[in-house]
Design a protein that fits this description.
Blueprint lengths: L1 H14 L3 H24 L4 H23 L35 H4 L3 H6 L43 E4 L58 E5 L9 E2 L10 E2 L10 E6 L4 E5 L15 E2 L4 H10 L4
Parallel strand pairs: 1-3
Antiparallel strand pairs: 1-2, 2-5, 4-7, 5-6
Amino acid sequence: MERETRVGCQSAREGGFTFVELLVVVGVLAVLAAMLIPALANTQPDSRLSQCLNNERQIVLGWRMYADDNNDVLAPNDYPFSTKLAWSPSSGKFVSWVAGTMANVFDATDPNGSKVLVDARGSRLAAYVTKDAAVYKCPGDELPSGSAGNFTSTKPFVRSYSMNSAVGTLWGNSTSFGGTFGPIGAPVKGGWLPGAAFNANQTAYSTYGKMTSLSQPGPAGTFVIMDENSLTINDCTMAVPAVRGANGYLIDYPASYHNGAANIAFADGHALVHKWQDRRTYTPVPGGAIQFSPNNLDTDYLAGITSAAR
């Protein structure tokens, strides 16, 4: 018994860790933790990005529901870019999928701005999207430094999203953009699709007034809603040329609120995060002027999801 006890004690001592060994193990674990923590931090969910994606999905869902209730005709996407909100029951002047221009302080900021977004008299999707005006605002769009044409804001804008200018229908009267566009319910003209010069009568690129007209690039390939840069956002439309390569231009600039990326929602209802490759894409020139941006991978991408040649 005595021998067995000694052997047992000796075995226990031989099977244990020395103090030096414990220090080595602790040191290795500390190094691993130092390596993993930054990597894990980068994988944490971005709640603002997720909320922005959800906002855009809600808007596109309401947009599709509107078409279902209106014989496949898409919501209006037609609004004079710098004109303060105005409507009347008889004319429906300046009605669109969402009313208000960020180029006017009354429409762009609270307390009035949020009321405009959810008032169905001017915002046609108000009956199909949540009554919470926050759905039109990207949580990452925080800085009160936006400048949209007519004024510089000291408060954040109430809206961050705009709609593809090739998608939707007309509503404005004959004075919209200084010319007669066509009857209410006709497809938008897509005047910026050819490039730097606005052409209300362009026929080179397709526009889409009904869900069934979205044949090319198709519902899964045609963007409807996108984060727009606060320096160029004004009316509810996002003017993106459909030209590529050496002829690339930037009219309305995408935002980059999500670490150099923007959220984009498509006609089939899906939304994604797109990382911009070229800094020119989300860096407007002073005053938000049109910028020639040749050989820009981003303008090529945007052209491909905006419209198709007829």
